[in-house]
């Protein structure tokens, strides 16, 4: 159906065209080239994976996460598999420099009978590598259109757009010999049959539960998989096809390769990585989290925005008693919905989110991320994580809230839980770190080392503990190392823009709701009640009762807590204990909301309670020792 | 005594013979790393090992490398 019949033509078109390919082959750049204006980033239901959609003629164009094949080894693969199974046409983006790797997916798509057009991308790099591919021969060999492209320069995109209509799949492929193994009565499409003989469990479950199992005679489809055979056979076909169309001239290794070698050698890679992480920390943690945010908060919001809004609301609302709670909700000095909440979102969160996505984009496009993972894998293995968890840990020192988002990168559920818990517990964010460093400097250098030491011990012990107690094993590092490239600014800016937009759309309602809830608690005197209830705990760690107020402030924002301690008259040891406790104690409300959004409510609650226990446990212990 | 991947030195060319972890094996198979000789490109001491084949590089964690059995290709370069 076309939109001439249906009237409006938006992203809800019936026909879908999906861009599918291995990670880092340029799908998103091709997507940007093909897409017409309106681009919509959204979260794939039930997952942490984002997908991007746009209008494409009468059809809907979908960008998918990169995968090496259609199967279900991780969340990205499951999302891509779903999208491919629903798509009418697939544009398979292939990296010309990695033909032998990428054709596996291509042949799999054709085996599945999915109408396909191949975009042979990165032709510029292939040429520089001395790789020559005969696109016409490849087209003849595969039996589907093949269009050479250099997506970043827009080359070949028009031709690709013109040939999407010609998408097709060969009538029959060698996969069919395995179909005989399936029970005669399975009702499955060719795509599903292909996945069945490859032993794809979700497909097996779907197909077998789709039928009534009443007679009990349905054979367990999970057992018919012959993945090894099918994959091995397909690999041999790949070698044949690639061998026939590709010729390679030896070239000297490129700068990218030499730099990659330097990165992977710990002797040279470690200093490079440290310098880079230092730069990232400086950029996110100092320039943005402190300088830019301070300017926005103190000048823009403190001097202009907040007073103006407060004045306006006060003059708008009548002085009647019914208006008082409304006024409190909108403009109270702790977390007013129109004042401080807006200040947090626009003045704090927005600059951090932009800076952060910008840096992540740079790391992704340059090929740096997996190399950092290789360097740090060994250390992180000890606390149940693998090298991919390095990013959240580093970003966390900049801003815990941002770091919680990056835990998406670290692999399976178990690792995400561990890294999120450690972030919430023992990683102080830069906002707080500034104030804490100031206070510790007053105590003396030895206390500063003590502080770092206590945090590292807590981090290590908590990591070990979680690794031992959580069910399952830590997943080992298995990652491809994409080639190193100089990132293209346009691509980085486009990604940053899309991701920021998507983030704000999800986060704003959450923060708004939280602000209302906290203001309500405040209005009805909940804070004072909590402060009194906390009295036994504050005395446990040997601190005066006002410390509870500091803790409550810390809920709203971590640096408030640290700042609140500046004007308490405390002894040296008390100050030290207090600082350790506010660091370990729950992260700020923004990061709590992020944790809630990224993990489930139960884990968030456990982390919340867990960090209370650890904070006061360690605090109590220190109070006894000191 | 069979040799495992963790014992190889950079520059050696080996074939991966037995990969116990089923998922990892399927992933390597897909990428062509079980099709024949692959080059050991780097190894971090007690850490991951980086393999290379036709310009594709893969990093495998140390624990994994310790359980993958290999054989040496006839001519080591
Ligand atoms: N030299 C060159 N670089 C390209 C080309 N196409 C894309 N790139 C670069 O390749 C990198 C990856 O491009 P993306 O479009 O993000 O790749 P992707 O396939 O969407 O990657 P994932 O979404 O991570 O799977 C970026 O740095 C691009 O600038 C091309 O034709 N030539
Ligand atoms: Mg992409």
Automatic annotation (TrEMBL), chain A:
Main location: membrane
Topology in the lipid bilayer: Multi-pass membrane protein
Keyword Nuclease: no
InterPro entries in the record: Fe2_transport_prot-B (IPR003373), Fe2_transport_prot_B_C (IPR011640), FeoB_GTPase (IPR050860), G_FEOB_dom (IPR030389), Gate_dom (IPR011642), GTP-bd (IPR006073), P-loop_NTPase (IPR027417)
A GO term, aspect molecular function: ferrous iron transmembrane transporter activity
Subcellular locations according to the entry: Cell membrane
Keyword Protein biosynthesis: no
Residues involved in GTP binding: 21-28, 46-50, 63-66, 121-124
Coiled-coil regions listed in the entry: none
Keywords: Cell membrane, GTP-binding, Ion transport, Iron, Iron transport, Magnesium, Membrane, Metal-binding, Nucleotide-binding, Transmembrane, Transmembrane helix, Transport
Ranges of residues in domain FeoB-type G: 14-170
PROSITE patterns attached to this UniProt entry: G_FEOB (PS51711)
GO cellular component terms attached to this protein's record: plasma membrane
Residues annotated as binding Mg(2+): 33
NCBIfam families to which the protein is assigned, alphabetical: feoB (TIGR00437)
Protein name (record): Ferrous iron transport protein B
From TrEMBL, chain B:
Keywords: Iron
Pfam family, one: FeoA
GO MF, one annotated term: transition metal ion binding
Signal peptide residue numbers: none
InterPro entries linked: Fe-transptr_FeoA-like, FeoA_core_dom, Transcriptional_repressor_C
Domain Ferrous iron transporter FeoA-like: 3-72
Entry-linked SMART domains: FeoA
Listed name of the protein: Ferrous iron transport protein A
Lineage of producing organism: Archaea, Methanobacteriati, Methanobacteriota, Stenosarchaea group, Halobacteria
């Amino acid at each position: 159906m076309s939109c001439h019949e249906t009237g409006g033509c938006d992203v809800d078109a019936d026909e879908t065209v999906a861009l599918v390919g291995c990670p880092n082959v340029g799908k998103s750049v091709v997507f940007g080239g093909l897409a017409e204006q309106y681009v919509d980033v959204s979260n794939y239901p039930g997952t942490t994976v984002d997908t991007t959609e746009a209008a494409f003629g009468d059809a809907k164009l979908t960008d998918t996460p990169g995968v090496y094949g259609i199967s279900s080894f991780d969340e990205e693969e499951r999302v891509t598999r779903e999208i491919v199974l629903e798509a009418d046409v697939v544009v398979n983006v292939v990296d010309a420099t990695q033909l032998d790797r990428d054709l596996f997916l291509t042949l799999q798509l054709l085996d599945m009978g999915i109408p396909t057009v191949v975009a042979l991308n990165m032709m510029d790099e292939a040429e520089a590598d001395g790789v020559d591919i005969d696109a016409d021969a490849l087209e003849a060999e595969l039996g589907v259109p093949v269009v050479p492209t250099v997506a970043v320069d827009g080359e070949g995109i028009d031709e690709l757009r013109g040939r999407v209509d010609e998408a097709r799949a060969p009538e029959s492929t060698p996969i069919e010999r395995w179909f005989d193994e399936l029970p005669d009565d399975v009702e499955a499409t060719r795509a599903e049959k292909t996945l069945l003989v490859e032993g794809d469990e979700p497909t097996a479950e779907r197909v077998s539960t789709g039928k009534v199992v009443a007679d009990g005679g349905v054979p367990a489809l999970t057992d018919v998989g012959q993945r090894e055979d099918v994959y091995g056979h397909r690999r041999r076909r790949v070698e044949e096809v690639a061998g026939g169309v590709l010729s390679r001239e030896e070239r000297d290794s490129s700068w990218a390769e030499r730099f990659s070698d330097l990165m992977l050698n710990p002797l040279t890679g470690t200093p490079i990585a440290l310098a880079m992480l230092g730069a990232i920390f400086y950029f996110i943690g100092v320039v943005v989290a402190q300088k830019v945010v301070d300017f926005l908060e103190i000048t823009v919001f403190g001097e202009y925005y907040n007073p103006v809004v407060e004045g306006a609301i006060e003059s708008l609302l009548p002085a009647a008693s019914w208006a008082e709670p409304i006024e409190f909700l909108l403009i109270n000095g702790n977390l007013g919905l129109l004042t401080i909440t807006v200040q947090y979102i626009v003045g704090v969160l927005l600059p951090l989110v932009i800076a952060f996505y910008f840096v992540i984009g740079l790391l992704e496009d340059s090929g740096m991320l997996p190399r950092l993972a290789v360097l740090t894998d060994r250390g992180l293995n000890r606390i149940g994580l693998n090298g991919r968890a390095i990013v959240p840990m580093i970003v966390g020192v900049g801003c815990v809230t941002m770091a919680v988002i990056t835990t998406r990168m670290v692999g399976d559920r178990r690792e995400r839980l561990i890294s999120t818990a450690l972030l919430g517990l023992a990683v102080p964010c830069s906002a707080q770190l500034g104030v804490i460093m100031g206070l510790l400097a007053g105590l003396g250098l030895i206390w500063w080392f003590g502080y770092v030491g206590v945090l590292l011990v807590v981090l290590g012990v908590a990591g070990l503990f979680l690794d031992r107690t959580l069910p399952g094993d830590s997943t080992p590092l298995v990652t491809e190392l994409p080639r190193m490239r100089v990132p293209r600014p346009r691509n980085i800016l486009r990604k940053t823009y899309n991701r920021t937009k998507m983030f704000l759309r999800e986060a704003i309602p959450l923060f708004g709701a939280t602000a209302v809830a906290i203001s309500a608690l405040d209005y009805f005197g909940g804070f004072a009640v909590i402060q009194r209830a906390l009295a036994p705990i504050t005395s446990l760690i040997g601190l005066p009762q006002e410390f509870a107020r500091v803790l409550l402030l810390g809920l709203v924002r971590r640096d408030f807590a640290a700042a609140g301690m500046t004007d308490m008259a405390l002894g040296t040891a008390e100050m030290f204990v207090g600082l350790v406790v506010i660091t370990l104690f729950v992260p700020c409300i923004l990061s709590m909301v992020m944790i809630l959004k990224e993990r489930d409510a139960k884990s968030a609650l456990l982390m919340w309670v867990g960090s209370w226990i650890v904070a006061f446990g360690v605090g109590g212990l220190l109070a006894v020792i000191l | 005594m069979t040799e495992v991947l963790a014992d190889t030195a950079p520059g050696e060319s080996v074939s991966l013979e037995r990969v116990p972890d089923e998922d990892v094996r399927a992933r390597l198979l897909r990428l062509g790393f079980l099709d024949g000789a692959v080059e050991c490109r780097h190894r971090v001491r007690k850490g991951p090992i980086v393999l290379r084949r036709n310009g594709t590089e893969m990093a495998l964690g140390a624990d994994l490398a310790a359980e993958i059995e290999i054989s040496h290709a006839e001519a080591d370069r």
